[in-house]
Amino acid sequence: MYRLRVRPVMRLSAFTVVDAYPDSGPSSEDRVREVVGLAEAAEAGGLSALWVAEHHFHPGGACPSPPVLLAACGARTRSLRLGSLVSVLPFHRAVDVAEQYALLDRLLGGRLNLGLGSGYIPAELEAFGVDPTTKREVFDRTLSSLLDAFAGREIRVDGERTPPVRLNVLPVQRPHPPLWIAAQRREAIPFVARRGVSLALIPYATVADSSELRAEIAEYRRHLPPGATGEVLAAVHLYAGERPDRARAALRRYLEARLATGSPSYEAKAKHHPAGATPEALEASGWALFGGGEEVARRVAELETLGVDEVAGIFDFGGLEPEEVARSVRSLGAAWARRGEARPRA
Question: Is residue 301 in some structural domain?
Answer without folding.
Answer: yes
